[in-house]
Amino acid sequence: MVNASLKKVIIKNFKSLHDCEIDIGKLNVVVGANASGKSNLVEAFRLLKKIYVDKDINPFSEWWGYDNVVWQRKEELHVTIGLLFDIEGYDVYYETTSTGAGGKFQILRELLDIKGYIRIGKEGEWLNVKHDNNFIEQVIKNLDDYKSGSGRYYGAKSILKTEKNQLMKETKIRVDINKRLLELESIREFHWEGRRLTGKRTANVFVLSYIYGSRSSQKDEKLKPALTLCPVVYEKSDRYHLEPPLFTIASKTIFSAINKLLILYPLNIRSMKVPQPFRREETLKEDGSNIASVYHTIYLEEGKIPEEIYDPISMIFPKIEVRPHITEDGRVMIKFFDEGLELLPPNTSDGFYKILTVLTAIYLKPPLIIIDEIENSLHPSTLELILDTIGIGQTQAIITTHSPVVVDMTELSDIILVEKEQGESKFRRIKDPEKIKEFLIKKGITFSEGWIYGDLFKTKQLA
Predict the structure, then answer these.
(1) What whole-number distance in Å separates Cα of residue 36 and Cα of residue 417?
(2) Which region holds residue 104: left if phi is over 0, alpha if psi is between -120 and 50, else beta?
(3) Would you say residue 234 has pLDDT above 70?
(4) pTM above 0.85, yes or no
(5) Fewer CB atoms near the end CB (10 Å): N or C, the chain?
(6) Contacts of 40 (CB under 8 A, 6+ apart)
(7) How many independent structural domains does the chain possess?
(8) 170 plus 76 within the same structural domain
(9) Count of CB atoms situated within 10 Å of the CB of 147
(10) In angstroms, rounded to a whole number, what is the distance separating the alpha carbons of residues 306 and 143?
(11) Containing domain of residue 136, as a range?
C-alpha cells in the first residue's frame, strides 16, 4: 500500500476562486459566511471528478455554461486545479488546465511534477519530459557508489556522461491525443529495457532507460534516454525486488485518489427514504440517494453491520437498530427499529439518514472525503461524534460549515477561514493557534464569537 496524502490545493479562475492556495491537513474545517466561497471549493473537486471519473463531454454544462464558471465570466481565461501530494515522502504535484469557451470542453495542459526528480507535461499530442538537472548531476557525481544489479560494472558513469546533455534537455515525444496524462501507457510503462544502476545501501534504484510515445507511433519515434527512479523492497538483507518506477506509482496514486474521492453535496434525504433498485454498489453518490444499496452491499460482504458504523450509531441512538431490507418487489431500503418497533420512512428523522450516510462514507475509507454544510439536520452532540470519528480514521476530510457550534468544537489548527474580498474568495489558516487562544481568553469570548463579530481578524494571527 502506497503512503500518500494531499498537502495543498491550488485553484485558479473557478468561480470566486480566482487565485487560491490552501494547505490541507488531516481534518480541514472550512468556515465562512454564506456566499463566501465554501461551496465553490467543493464544486472545484466536483469538476475534477466530472472530468476524470465521469468523463463528461462538457463538465461545465451543469453550471449552464463555461461563462457561469470562469472568473468574472472572462471566457479567455482557463480554469486550473492543482493538487500537491506527499507520496512515499516525495512531493508530487499534479495540475490540469481546461476551458469550455464557445461551448467546447478541452483539456489544454496537464502536469505531473515529482519535485527534484522529473517533470512531465502534456499539451495536445505532445509529451514534454524534463529531468531536474541537480538530480542528474548528483547521480553522476555519486555513481562510484553504485554498481549494476549483477555486481559487475558496465561503464555506467561513461554512459551517463555521454547521455548527460540529452538528459538535461526537455524531451518532446508524441502520444495519444485522446488520452489524459494519468492514463497514458507511455507514462505507466515509462522504462523500457534499460540499464540498472543499483545503490549499495539505498532504498532506490536508478535505471537508465528510454522513453517513447504511444505504441502506434513508436516506430516513428526516436528513443530518448531517461533516468528513472525505482523504489526497492528488501525481502532479506541481500535480496530485493524493484517496484514500478516512481512516476508510475505517482500517476496511479493520483488517478486512484481522484477516482475514489467521495463528495457529499448536498444530500437528498427524500430519495434515501424511497426503496432503490437492488444492485451491488460500493460507492456513494454525491446526494447519498443510493445509501440503501451501498449499506446492503457492505452488510453482505461483512455478514453484519461493521463496528465502525454500528458503534457510533449505538452511542447516538442506543435503542435504535439500522438494518438493510429487501422489499417484496426486490428493491432495497433502510429500516430503522426503535426498541423493536419499526419506524416507517415518513416517520424517520432526516438526521438518521444523514448520520448513516456520513458514517458509511467514512467506513469506505476514501483518500479524501468532502462534506458540504455538515451541520444540517444534526444535533451538536452528533456533530462532535462524527468529527471525532473522522479524526481517528484514515481518511483526510474537508468539511464546510457556517455553524458556530462546529467552529467551537474544532481544533484551531484544523480551521480554514474564508472571506470574500472584492469578489474573490480568500482562504486563511490560523498562523499561531496558541496566541489566538490567549486572545480569546483575554476577551472572554469563544472562537466563533471572535469570527462572527470580526475581532479575531484584528489580532493579525491569521496566515
Answers:
(1) 10
(2) beta
(3) no
(4) yes
(5) N
(6) 14, 15, 16, 17, 425
(7) 3
(8) yes
(9) 17
(10) 52
(11) 4-257
